[in-house]
Amino acid sequence: METVIFRRIVLMVMMTSMMVNMAKSELHYVGGNKFSWAPNVNLTQWSMHQHFYVHDWLYFGYDRHMQNVLEVNKTSYENCIDKDFIKNITKGGGKDVIELKEVKTYYFLSSCGFCWNGLKIAINVENAAPSSSPGHNKSSSCTIGINQNLVILLILMWGIIIFK
Ligand SMILES: *[C@@H]1O[C@H](CO)[C@@H](O)[C@H](O)[C@H]1NC(C)=O
Ligand SMILES: *[C@@H]1O[C@H](CO)[C@@H](O)[C@H](O)[C@H]1NC(C)=O
Ligand SMILES: *[C@@H]1O[C@H](CO)[C@@H](O)[C@H](O)[C@H]1NC(C)=O
Ligand SMILES: *[C@@H]1O[C@H](CO)[C@@H](O)[C@H](O)[C@H]1NC(C)=O
Q1: N or C: which end of the chain has fewer CB within 10 A?
Q2: Atom of ligand 1 nearest to the CA of 43
Q3: May I ask which residue range the UniProt record assigns to the signal sequence (predicted)?
Protein backbone atom coordinates (compact mmCIF):
# COMPACT_ATOMS: atom_id res chain seq x y z
CA MET A 1 0.00 0.00 0.00
CA GLU A 2 2.80 2.36 1.00
CA THR A 3 4.67 1.72 -2.25
CA VAL A 4 1.57 2.35 -4.31
CA ILE A 5 1.13 5.75 -2.75
CA PHE A 6 4.84 6.45 -3.15
CA ARG A 7 4.71 5.56 -6.83
CA ARG A 8 1.74 7.80 -7.34
CA ILE A 9 3.52 10.67 -5.66
CA VAL A 10 6.57 10.18 -7.88
CA LEU A 11 4.35 10.11 -10.94
CA MET A 12 2.56 13.20 -9.78
CA VAL A 13 5.81 15.09 -9.24
CA MET A 14 6.97 14.11 -12.70
CA MET A 15 3.73 15.23 -14.29
CA THR A 16 3.74 18.45 -12.33
CA SER A 17 7.27 19.36 -13.30
CA MET A 18 6.35 18.67 -16.90
CA MET A 19 3.40 21.00 -16.60
CA VAL A 20 5.55 23.68 -15.00
CA ASN A 21 8.10 23.35 -17.79
CA MET A 22 5.39 23.66 -20.39
CA ALA A 23 4.01 26.71 -18.68
CA LYS A 24 7.44 28.30 -18.85
CA SER A 25 7.62 28.18 -22.62
CA GLU A 26 6.15 31.22 -24.25
CA LEU A 27 4.18 31.68 -27.45
CA HIS A 28 5.34 34.70 -29.42
CA TYR A 29 2.97 36.22 -31.93
CA VAL A 30 5.42 37.26 -34.62
CA GLY A 31 4.96 40.99 -35.17
CA GLY A 32 2.96 41.42 -31.98
CA ASN A 33 -0.48 40.02 -32.75
CA LYS A 34 -2.40 37.22 -34.47
CA PHE A 35 -2.24 38.78 -37.90
CA SER A 36 1.10 40.50 -38.07
CA TRP A 37 3.22 38.35 -40.36
CA ALA A 38 2.35 41.11 -42.79
CA PRO A 39 4.15 43.53 -45.12
CA ASN A 40 3.38 46.72 -43.20
CA VAL A 41 4.77 45.53 -39.89
CA ASN A 42 8.24 46.51 -38.69
CA LEU A 43 9.41 43.10 -37.55
CA THR A 44 12.86 44.34 -36.60
CA GLN A 45 11.27 46.77 -34.21
CA TRP A 46 9.14 44.00 -32.73
CA SER A 47 11.95 41.46 -32.28
CA MET A 48 14.20 44.05 -30.63
CA HIS A 49 11.95 43.93 -27.58
CA GLN A 50 11.64 40.14 -27.40
CA HIS A 51 13.60 37.39 -25.76
CA PHE A 52 13.38 33.95 -27.27
CA TYR A 53 14.27 30.89 -25.25
CA VAL A 54 14.53 27.23 -26.18
CA HIS A 55 11.08 25.58 -26.26
CA ASP A 56 9.32 28.85 -26.92
CA TRP A 57 6.92 28.88 -29.83
CA LEU A 58 6.43 31.26 -32.71
CA TYR A 59 3.03 32.01 -34.19
CA PHE A 60 2.83 33.37 -37.71
CA GLY A 61 -0.57 34.79 -38.56
CA TYR A 62 -1.14 36.08 -42.09
CA ASP A 63 -3.27 36.07 -45.21
CA ARG A 64 -2.94 32.51 -46.49
CA HIS A 65 -3.64 33.63 -50.07
CA MET A 66 -0.72 36.03 -50.05
CA GLN A 67 2.15 35.15 -47.73
CA ASN A 68 3.85 32.02 -46.47
CA VAL A 69 6.55 31.07 -43.98
CA LEU A 70 9.82 29.40 -44.88
CA GLU A 71 12.79 28.72 -42.65
CA VAL A 72 15.99 29.53 -44.52
CA ASN A 73 19.69 29.93 -43.78
CA LYS A 74 21.46 33.21 -43.15
CA THR A 75 22.58 33.75 -46.73
CA SER A 76 19.10 33.18 -48.08
CA TYR A 77 17.65 35.43 -45.41
CA GLU A 78 19.96 38.29 -46.29
CA ASN A 79 19.35 37.96 -50.00
CA CYS A 80 15.67 36.99 -49.91
CA ILE A 81 16.24 33.65 -51.63
CA ASP A 82 13.20 31.40 -51.23
CA LYS A 83 14.60 28.42 -53.11
CA ASP A 84 16.22 25.48 -51.32
CA PHE A 85 14.81 26.54 -47.99
CA ILE A 86 15.50 24.58 -44.81
CA LYS A 87 11.87 23.99 -43.88
CA ASN A 88 8.46 24.89 -45.17
CA ILE A 89 6.53 26.07 -42.13
CA THR A 90 3.43 26.86 -44.18
CA LYS A 91 0.48 24.60 -43.41
CA GLY A 92 -2.07 26.40 -45.56
CA GLY A 93 -4.34 28.02 -42.99
CA GLY A 94 -2.41 31.24 -42.46
CA LYS A 95 -1.76 30.27 -38.85
CA ASP A 96 1.54 28.52 -38.46
CA VAL A 97 3.39 27.63 -35.30
CA ILE A 98 6.90 26.37 -34.81
CA GLU A 99 8.78 25.35 -31.70
CA LEU A 100 12.22 26.87 -31.24
CA LYS A 101 14.07 23.70 -30.32
CA GLU A 102 17.69 24.82 -30.57
CA VAL A 103 19.91 27.58 -29.30
CA LYS A 104 20.72 29.26 -32.59
CA THR A 105 19.51 32.00 -34.88
CA TYR A 106 16.50 30.99 -36.92
CA TYR A 107 15.75 32.81 -40.16
CA PHE A 108 12.28 33.06 -41.66
CA LEU A 109 10.96 34.78 -44.73
CA SER A 110 7.91 34.94 -46.89
CA SER A 111 8.31 34.24 -50.58
CA CYS A 112 6.40 35.83 -53.50
CA GLY A 113 8.40 39.04 -53.19
CA PHE A 114 7.23 39.91 -49.69
CA CYS A 115 10.70 39.33 -48.32
CA TRP A 116 11.90 42.30 -50.34
CA ASN A 117 9.34 44.44 -48.51
CA GLY A 118 10.79 43.38 -45.19
CA LEU A 119 8.70 40.32 -44.48
CA LYS A 120 11.53 38.33 -42.94
CA ILE A 121 12.82 37.87 -39.45
CA ALA A 122 15.87 36.57 -37.62
CA ILE A 123 15.10 34.98 -34.28
CA ASN A 124 17.99 34.67 -31.88
CA VAL A 125 17.19 31.79 -29.49
CA GLU A 126 18.89 31.80 -26.12
CA ASN A 127 19.25 29.15 -23.48
CA ALA A 128 16.65 29.49 -20.77
CA ALA A 129 18.03 31.89 -18.18
CA PRO A 130 19.16 30.15 -14.99
CA SER A 131 16.50 30.88 -12.39
CA SER A 132 18.92 31.68 -9.58
CA SER A 133 22.30 32.89 -10.76
CA PRO A 134 24.17 34.58 -7.91
CA GLY A 135 24.58 38.33 -8.14
CA HIS A 136 21.91 38.48 -10.74
CA ASN A 137 19.04 40.91 -10.48
CA LYS A 138 16.24 38.44 -9.98
CA SER A 139 13.25 40.25 -8.61
CA SER A 140 11.00 38.71 -11.25
CA SER A 141 12.43 35.17 -11.24
CA CYS A 142 11.95 35.01 -7.48
CA THR A 143 8.20 35.29 -7.81
CA ILE A 144 8.14 32.59 -10.46
CA GLY A 145 10.18 30.25 -8.28
CA ILE A 146 7.84 30.64 -5.33
CA ASN A 147 4.78 30.14 -7.51
CA GLN A 148 6.17 26.97 -9.04
CA ASN A 149 6.95 25.45 -5.67
CA LEU A 150 3.51 26.37 -4.45
CA VAL A 151 1.88 24.71 -7.43
CA ILE A 152 3.90 21.53 -6.93
CA LEU A 153 3.06 21.45 -3.24
CA LEU A 154 -0.64 21.97 -3.85
CA ILE A 155 -0.83 19.25 -6.48
CA LEU A 156 1.16 16.90 -4.25
CA MET A 157 -1.22 17.47 -1.36
CA TRP A 158 -4.16 17.01 -3.67
CA GLY A 159 -2.70 13.71 -4.90
CA ILE A 160 -2.12 12.40 -1.39
CA ILE A 161 -5.66 13.28 -0.34
CA ILE A 162 -7.23 11.72 -3.43
CA PHE A 163 -5.32 8.44 -3.34
CA LYS A 164 -5.14 7.84 0.39
C1 LIG B 1 12.08 49.38 -38.18
O2 LIG B 1 12.48 49.73 -36.87
C3 LIG B 1 13.88 49.87 -36.72
C4 LIG B 1 14.19 50.07 -35.25
O5 LIG B 1 13.33 51.02 -34.67
C6 LIG B 1 14.35 51.04 -37.59
O7 LIG B 1 15.76 51.19 -37.45
C8 LIG B 1 13.99 50.77 -39.04
O9 LIG B 1 14.34 51.87 -39.82
C10 LIG B 1 12.52 50.46 -39.18
N11 LIG B 1 12.27 50.02 -40.52
C12 LIG B 1 11.31 50.56 -41.27
C13 LIG B 1 11.16 49.97 -42.63
O14 LIG B 1 10.59 51.45 -40.88
C1 LIG C 1 22.22 28.48 -47.78
O2 LIG C 1 21.36 27.78 -48.64
C3 LIG C 1 21.67 27.96 -50.01
C4 LIG C 1 20.59 27.26 -50.80
O5 LIG C 1 20.46 25.93 -50.41
C6 LIG C 1 23.07 27.42 -50.27
O7 LIG C 1 23.41 27.64 -51.62
C8 LIG C 1 24.07 28.12 -49.36
O9 LIG C 1 25.34 27.56 -49.52
C10 LIG C 1 23.65 28.03 -47.93
N11 LIG C 1 24.52 28.84 -47.12
C12 LIG C 1 25.02 28.46 -45.96
C13 LIG C 1 25.88 29.45 -45.24
O14 LIG C 1 24.77 27.35 -45.50
C1 LIG D 1 4.63 24.55 -48.25
O2 LIG D 1 3.68 23.62 -47.81
C3 LIG D 1 2.34 23.99 -48.14
C4 LIG D 1 1.40 23.02 -47.46
O5 LIG D 1 1.77 21.71 -47.73
C6 LIG D 1 2.18 24.01 -49.65
O7 LIG D 1 0.86 24.38 -49.97
C8 LIG D 1 3.17 25.02 -50.23
O9 LIG D 1 3.12 24.98 -51.65
C10 LIG D 1 4.58 24.72 -49.76
N11 LIG D 1 5.44 25.82 -50.17
C12 LIG D 1 6.59 25.61 -50.78
C13 LIG D 1 7.36 26.84 -51.16
O14 LIG D 1 7.02 24.49 -51.01
C1 LIG E 1 18.09 45.60 -10.86
O2 LIG E 1 18.34 46.02 -12.17
C3 LIG E 1 18.01 47.37 -12.41
C4 LIG E 1 18.18 47.68 -13.87
O5 LIG E 1 19.13 46.85 -14.46
C6 LIG E 1 18.89 48.27 -11.50
O7 LIG E 1 18.57 49.63 -11.70
C8 LIG E 1 18.66 47.89 -10.07
O9 LIG E 1 19.53 48.65 -9.25
C10 LIG E 1 18.93 46.42 -9.85
N11 LIG E 1 18.58 46.03 -8.48
C12 LIG E 1 19.38 45.27 -7.74
C13 LIG E 1 18.88 44.93 -6.38
O14 LIG E 1 20.45 44.81 -8.17
Answers
A1: N
A2: 1
A3: 1-25
Q: Where are the domains of the chain?
A: 2-129+139-163
What string of pLDDT tens digits covers the 164 residues of the chain?
A: 667 777 777 777 777 666 665 557 899 999 999 999 999 899 999 999 999 999 999 999 999 999 999 999 999 999 999 999 999 999 999 999 999 999 999 999 999 899 999 999 999 999 976 655 555 554 554 445 556 666 777 777 777 777 66
Test site for ligand 2: of 84, 85, 109, most ligand atoms within 8 A of the Cβ: 84
pTM, whole model, 2 decimals? 0.69
Q: Which CATH class is domain 2-129+139-163?
A: mainly beta
What phi and psi, each to the nearest 5 degrees, are found at residue 154?
-60, -45
